[in-house]
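Exercise 7. Given the components listed, write out the predicted structure of the assembled complex. Treat all entries as one system.
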Amino acid sequence: MDYEFSVDGTVYKISLEHAEGKVVATLNGNRLELDAQQVSSQAVSLLIDGKSYLAHVARQGEKILVAVGTHQFCLEEAEQESSLARVKESLPEQAEETVKAPMPGLVIKVNVLEGNDVNPGDGLIVVEAMKMEHEMRASFKAVVEKIHVKAGQQVDAFQPLVELKRVHE
Amino acid sequence: MFKKILIANRGEIALRVIRASREMGIATVAVYSTVDRGARHVQMADEAVFIGPAPPLESYLNIDAIMSAAKSTGAEAIHPGYGFLAENPQFARRCEESGLVFIGPDSRALALVGDKVASRKAAAGIKAPLIPGMMAVGKEPREFEEAARSIGYPILVKASGGGGGKGMHIVRSPKDLGSAIETSRREARSAFGDDSVYLEKYLEQPRHVEFQVLADQHGGIVHLFERECSIQRRHQKIMEETPSVALDDALRQRMGETAVAIIRATHYTNAGTVEFLLDKDRNFYFLEVNARIQVEHPITEMVMGVDLVKLQIRIASGEALPFRQSDLKQRGHAIECRIYAENPERGFLPSPGKILLVEEPEGPNIRCDSGIYSGMVVTPHYDPILSKLIVWSEDRESARSRMISALSDYVILGIPTTVAFLTDVVSHAEFAAGNTHTHFIEQYFPQWRKSERDSNLLEIAMIAGALAGSKASSAGVKEQMPRRPTPWQTTGKWTIGGS
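Answer.
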């Protein structure tokens, strides 16, 4: 079963499978086999490679609060659409003419063509890393001058993705 | 002994008094405001009386309502706890006039020690060391200016009727004196209804060391040694320990004797605390007398093996102290952490709200004086204290380890609390070394943030969240979980309800 959690603005996808009394979790492409037991309605005991973890869980509206030791996490469980929308809104807009990758990752979508006119807030390109999608958006009125990458391409942090030419009104 | 007492308080201290009374075979009456109908002290007392709306002035500070609750239930005595009416001489007098026993000092002693200038005079009378400062409240600006010059800057402006840091201002240069006095007066007028202020020398980085005292009505007075309460935010204590690493036996004895002498000079009875500041050169100065059971009283109970609340009740009922000074010895080390509904990442802003889940630590010599439960709503109307975690061990270092361990077992979900912050404070190298002073938090934790998130733990959290918290899986849990927890495999089919 697949889950999607937004934690501090970052979206994580996690899938859990149940096989032979074990739980297999897949997170960021990493496969993790663990033994999970719900010990009360609000507590889960996890054994991972023999290490024992106790997590306490409570629902707060749309949020799931989890405590592991003195560490607390707030997971927002949402429909894919809305959680991505939130992440997009929280990203800073590109102020420079060269739009660069914010982190190493995979270009999953290019939304513009060379020569396109773009307005502030228009989506340019979507980069995914650690199961988190970042949409790079224009912050000023511009023409797309050059696109350096294509969908499916791996990029490094700060690698130029798109060149914009500012249009002054 | 009394047959029934009323507890004019709420939260953990009300529970503390109810427990002590129960064990003594005394029936208890709780009082509560609109928002506290579901509070634990109401659940736990034998009787509960509604006293008014949420604002303290209309309920827990409403003397008429509390007196009439005591009369209607036939209570013989009133325990005021701490805060609210605990140090209010008018309330004590009302009790005296209506034949009720106020479990604390009499109204005259309360009025005396509650007036800081008067208690400074009393302390001066027995030649107790005082922080250099004015011996009377000031009136004219020139009076303050002259006093400040002779005391020397930095200066502390203090409200004579004050407490809890209210109306207190540090002045480092003469040009700021006038405005600080004005601010203090304004704050003191609104907080205590009395705008008299005075000046004191401001000590840099002192330790706060206080002595617990008990005085019966037959002239018996003892001290139960010290508590160091240097770890403070906004001039309010958040962590206390005993013994203090700063005292040796000779200094401890001198301070204890001074505390007893001040109590004797003020004709004070019942439990009280004499507060001192200790400077870097180990000079101690009398600060004030707190005429109540202190929030931090449990650490004294842990190292002394006594029950201070029961002793308060016994003293109020006329019994003599069951021990003499020579019978009393400290044993081991105790630390208390106050768990507040406050957000340490946002300047300790109160964080009222609904507590979704509480799991309290347990284990040998771990005590949790708590007033909360899963599902309780923390209201914005009262003090944000939720509970107190107290540990005892043979020595300071093992008590410190025990506290860190116990804090890591303390789960409060739903509202920000001070648990993780306190863990960092107790773990700090300077705390471990015993280098504490009243500006410790400002110096070492000026902009505290939760420690870097461990990605491992985030994974754990997400797996747990998916299993126990997710809407999709919780539907599955309800259908599939048997009443009794069983191994994971027997519950099976977590995917039910999903795709």
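Discussion: Chain B has four domains: 4-103, 132-201, 207-444, 455-491. Residues 474-499 of chain B have pLDDT under 50 and may be disordered.
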